[in-house]
């Protein structure tokens, strides 16, 4: 499995290297990609130079896109997708399309995305007003976590957080795409999209919570 994973990574790296020779560096654009997780595998991605750099205020789907074809969660926890960037002389808006597979054995009640820097224990959230955001303040582009057969119809976005909820994504189900929009500014060399599924509390956990609550109540009465 390990060999498969490293082989896959090597293949992705090789593919990106082939597509992105050093001479193609341009402004405000995503140039490379890494992922970090103990709970999921990322099948592949393709990074192209943006066809419309510095299009921060665009409404609707940005022509600049990043596809991440499959993210296969085998346990609940965060996955950090880190993108290398280079200046473009402005803010470039990207649309992200992701395939997400729930292989955790648990149903998910919501899905959380955060923008920041670094990965793992070194992850730090993106500050307010730094130009890196989920299409703030306009929020006039693609934001959808409700592909067929459903999943999360209710989505709220703030500058650096997206919460998708209002439904359930059962185990062994696949979302052909989750879609969201990110503004990539000048002045950074990389940024991270941290993504975390949130599991529906198991009946056993719920019972424990209820028992705990009752015990606390009885203690107070005494
Ligand atoms: Ca920010
Ligand atoms: Ca924007
Ligand atoms: Ca926009």
Question: What would a concise description of this structure say?
Answer:
This protein is an alpha+beta fold. The protein is built from two helices and twelve strands.
Describe this structure in words.
It contains 2 helices and 12 strands, in the order H-E-E-E-E-E-E-E-E-E-E-E-E-H. The protein starts with a helix and ends with a helix. It has one domain (2-221). It has 222 residues and is of the alpha+beta class. The protein has helices at residues 2-19, 203-221; strands at residues 28-36, 40-42, 45-46, 65-73, 79-87, 92-102, 108-117, 124-125, 154-157, 161-165, 174-184, 190-199. 29% of the residues are buried. The longest helix is centred in the last third of the chain and has 19 residues, at 203-221. The strands form 2 sheets. Strands 1, 5, 7, 8, 9, 10 and 12 form a 7-stranded antiparallel sheet that branches. Bound molecules: calcium ion (3 copies). Residues 115, 126-128, 130, 132-133, 159-160 line the site of one calcium ion.
SSE order, one letter for each helix or strand? HEEEEEEEEEEEEH
What is the count of DSSP helices, taking H or I runs of 4+ residues?
2
Number of strands: 12
Bound molecules: calcium ion
Classification by helices and strands: alpha+beta
Quote the beta fraction. 35-45%
Q: Low-confidence parts, pLDDT < 50 over ≥5 residues?
A: 1-27
Gyration radius, in Å: 19 Å
| Shape summary | elongated
Largest sheet: 7 strands, antiparallel
Helicity level, as a percent range?
Answer: 10-25%
Overall average residue pLDDT: 85
> Number of domains in the coordinates?
1
Distance between the termini: 56 Å
